Structures are given as structure tokens and as C-alpha cells.
């Protein structure tokens, strides 16, 4: 069981004494292809030392107390493989992505389905979508990557909630979960992104209609503004979404920006989506790449106070990837985005000098190792290095008509009613009591991890 902050704080203290020798530095030349590949190889190796899913007695793709992080790991691995050509981890990647997909192929695996949130499931859907778009080969016995993304999409649009706020995705799926009565940016912006990507890959307009619907709803709520381009973290159903929890997290901006980039590309260059991309991108750079810290990517809410939890350490990595995809999908943004990715990657490399073995820290803007250590730090460093590979490969994500051959199943997940709104009203008292016990366990181990929205908002 993980106690956010405490474990890291103690380790950080204990290890602070060991960090002064920078002998294990990653020597990164940001304009050199091989140099970037080498840096990514180093951080990916360290990242995979935390992954036990292919060892006897362990479950592929499973991280017991932080299930969604498996998707963040596999997202990083997919891009690592695609941009470097290194296939070392592909088997584990394929097996893990498949193993956690659940009986219905929608990332509601029974071991986790009773306490995961819409955002957790959505991130696995994005990983499957990325696999399809980067032409990671489908498995011969199992679900295709595209159908897994469709499975997540189908189960989630069935949960679209009109009981308050005239629409929107709840944060959580189950009434007993803390956050069930909230609607938040990452769940809505995440599904918006997934819908936009499905629209572009399949050229099926029904996905685009949903993307637009989620976008419209987000604008009508306090979560997203198309005048200031502020993205708030959450809003509460108890007051019909009239107030906002305005904590500023980079991934909330990033996911709406990424979705808008796909819509821009899908629409063959609509000016409406272009201004959305530019607005969100500008705000992201202004806010999370502060010039006062050298224009280096910084999760500003938690880094200066060293209070980032595992989730929050991953946000920069996710957004680095999304910026690199945006640069390819919206070519006019490329020359703006690339210098930011370069500056941050150089700083990240300087942070990867811990323990004489290239351990990466959290605060890239320190340009030195800061004493933190963990899988999340390694994932984010991998992502910022790999994001810089767009200098050498501008092919971008494919579609079904430009080389993507992942098999489509537009109805996947539709039979999984285990968590649709209709089913929820049928939960019996007995079920709830049992579930409540699980929740007590969940509260101890998970709310601290996943509660960043609640506590942040
Ligand atoms: C680097 O050293 C630290 C401290 O000994 C250790 O915890 C970590 O696993 C090492 N990383 C690698 C990739 O060997
Ligand atoms: C798990 O995969 C790693 C490569 O990432 C490999 O070094 C290791 O031997 C594998 N373990 C087993 C038990 O297959
Ligand atoms: C980009 O990378 C992909 C995957 O490795 C490869 O198929 C493609 O040929 C590359 N494109 C260029 C222009 O190098
Ligand atoms: C679910 O958990 C059980 C018990 O730990 C394990 O044996 C099984 O492989 C898990 N199933 C999946 C799909 O992860
Ligand atoms: C689909 O494309 C991938 C990548 O190009 C290739 O490895 C795979 O064999 C193809 N699958 C089929 C069924 O054609
Ligand atoms: C989104 O809102 C615009 C007006 O701002 C409207 O024209 C459009 O039909 C709406 N689309 C959907 C799918 O709700
Ligand atoms: C901003 O959103 C509102 C509400 O959806 C819409 O009516 C308006 O046209 C949008 N403005 C721009 C500049 O897109
Ligand atoms: C974009 O252009 C392509 C090629 O002309 C066309 O097939 C597609 O339908 C267009 N997409 C939209 C949303 O108009
Ligand atoms: C984004 O910033 C650029 C450069 O500062 C500016 O030219 C552009 O108008 C801005 N776009 C939006 C939508 O705010
Ligand atoms: C869409 O993205 C591709 C890269 O995948 C790019 O080549 C193309 O120019 C983009 N389309 C538009 C309209 O910008
Ligand atoms: C859903 O259930 C129906 C009826 O049992 C079946 O015909 C259909 O193939 C199922 N769809 C999926 C995607 O499993």
C-alpha cells in the first residue's frame, strides 16, 4: 500500500546525501538522432526495472495499487518502440495491453472494475488507440487494438450522465466512490480525445459528433473556456456544475489540446479547431513552461513544494507526448512546439544523474538530480526524450486509409452493461454493502492516489 508523499519524502531525505556525483549523466545532444535514442533507451531500461508483469507469480500489466499507471507505462513503451525501432519490450507490451483488457474488451477487467474511475479506463483506451495509430501489430488471438479503444468509447458514452449539469462524464463510475458526484476535465477531455482519434482513424462521423458534443458540453460547464482557454480541474454536480475546482494541471490542458488537434486534422484543417489548438497550446506554454524557470516544463501546482504524487509526476510525460503528436497533426504548430520540447528534454537529461546510474528526478527545471526516484520519473523522462524524435520522423499517427490495419469492431463493449447508468440503479443493498467494504480498502490505498482532483479542487 502506497502512502503518497511519505515514502518519497523519506527516501528523498535519505538519498540526498548520495546525489552529488554526476558521473552517471545522460549525455544528450538534442539535435542528434542517435543521442536521443540512447537517452530514451537508458530511461526506458530503468522504467522497466519496475515492471514485474512478465515474471512468475505476477500478472501482466497489473499494478495492484495504481492500475491506471500500467497504461502510462505502455503508452511510453509504444512511442519508445515506434520512434527508436527497439523491439526489446514489445512482447511484454503486447501481452500486458491484452491481459488487462477484460472479458468484454473494454478495459473493465474484473479484478479492478469495481473501483476504477472513468479516467483510469480512458487512459487504457488511449494506449490501445496509440497502438493502432502507430501500427503496433494486432495479436492473433485476442482483441485488436482498435476494437479495445472502441470498447472503452462505447462503455463510456453509455455512461454520459444527464442527471445534473445537462450532460457530462462523471469522474467515477460507482456511487460508492469518492468523486462520483463530480464531473472533471480529465474524464471529459479524455473521452473527447479518444472520440476525436477514433473519428480520424476510422473516418466514421459518429465519433466526431460525440467529440463535438463533449467539447460543447465542456464549454457550457466551468471546465473549459473558449475565451480565456482556462481549463478547470473539476465541477460539482451538487450545485449543478455552477462552481469549479480550478487547480491547474497540465494534463487537463493537454488532453483538450490533443483532441482539438485530431479534430483539426480529421476536418482537413478547420479554422475553429485550429484556434482551439492554438489557444490551449499558448496557455499550456504560458502556464507550465514558466520563463522564470528557463521555459522548462514544470507541474507548477506541486513541483516547487515537492508535493507531487505518482499521478502528478506522470502528467508532464503525457503532455510531452501529446505536444509532439499535436506538432505533427497541426503542422503550423511544429516550429512553436519543438523548441519547448528541446529545452525541457535537455533539462530532463540533466536531472537524470542520480545514483551514478542515470536515475531521473522530478523537477527538470533544477537541471540536476533532485533526489526523487520512481517508475513515474522514468516514464516522464522517456516521454520527453522520445517526443523530440519528431525532428527525424514526421510520419505521425496513421489512419485506416494510410496504413492502419487494426481490426474495427464498432459495437465492442456494448454488451458490457455492468457499469452503465441503467445498471447502477439496479444495484441492490447487498451489493452496495459488499462494495462498501471494498471501498474502505480503496479509500486507504487509492483515494490518496487518485484523489488529486478532490483535494486539488
Ligand atoms: C539505481 O540505483 C538506485 C539506488 O541504488 C536503485 O534503487 C535503482 O534501482 C538503480 N536503477 C537502475 C536502473 O539500476
Ligand atoms: C521480462 O522481460 C525483461 C525484458 O524487459 C527480461 O529481461 C526478463 O528476462 C523477462 N523476465 C521473464 C521472466 O521473462
Ligand atoms: C517513422 O517510423 C516508423 C516506425 O518506426 C517507420 O515505419 C517510418 O518509416 C518512419 N518514417 C520515416 C520518415 O522515417
Ligand atoms: C485477477 O487476479 C487473479 C488473482 O490475483 C489473477 O490470478 C488473475 O490473473 C487476474 N486476472 C487478470 C485478467 O489480471
Ligand atoms: C498490419 O500492419 C503491421 C504493421 O505494418 C504488420 O506488422 C502486420 O502484419 C499487418 N497485419 C495484417 C493482418 O496485415
Ligand atoms: C455544438 O455547438 C454548436 C454551437 O456552438 C452547434 O452548432 C453544434 O450543433 C453543436 N454540436 C453538437 C454535436 O452538439
Ligand atoms: C465559444 O463557445 C460558445 C459556446 O459553445 C460558442 O457559442 C462560441 O461560438 C464559441 N466561440 C468561438 C470563438 O468559437
Ligand atoms: C478530408 O479529406 C479527405 C480526402 O479528401 C476526405 O476523404 C474526408 O472525408 C475529409 N474529411 C472531412 C471530415 O471532411
Ligand atoms: C498564440 O500565441 C501566438 C504567439 O504569442 C500568437 O500569435 C497567437 O495569436 C496566439 N493564439 C491564440 C489563439 O491565442
Ligand atoms: C494531418 O496530419 C498529417 C500527419 O499525420 C499531416 O501530414 C497533415 O498535413 C495533417 N493535415 C492537416 C490538414 O494539417
Ligand atoms: C452482444 O450480444 C448479442 C446477443 O447476444 C450478440 O449477438 C452480439 O454479437 C454481442 N456483441 C458483442 C460486441 O459482443
Automatic annotation (TrEMBL):
EC numbers for this chain: 3.2.1.101
Biased composition (Low complexity): 417-427
Keyword field: Glycoprotein, Glycosidase, Hydrolase, Membrane, Signal, Transmembrane, Transmembrane helix
Positions of the UniProt region annotated as Disordered: 398-427
A cellular-component GO term for this protein: endomembrane system
Listed GO MF terms: mannan endo-1,6-alpha-mannosidase activity
Alphabetical GO biological process terms: carbohydrate catabolic process; fungal-type cell wall biogenesis
InterPro entries the record matches: 6-hairpin_glycosidase_sf (IPR008928), Glyco_hydro_76 (IPR005198), Mannan-1_6-alpha_mannosidase (IPR014480)
Keyword NAD appears in the UniProt entry: no
Residue ranges of the TM segments: 433-455
Catalysis performed (reactions): Random hydrolysis of (1->6)-alpha-D-mannosidic linkages in unbranched (1->6)-mannans
Start-end of Polar residues biased regions: 398-416
Gene3D superfamilies from the UniProt entry: 1.50.10.20
Annotated signal peptide: 1-25
Enzyme class: hydrolase
Main location, first listed in the record: membrane
Protein's UniProt name: Mannan endo-1,6-alpha-mannosidase
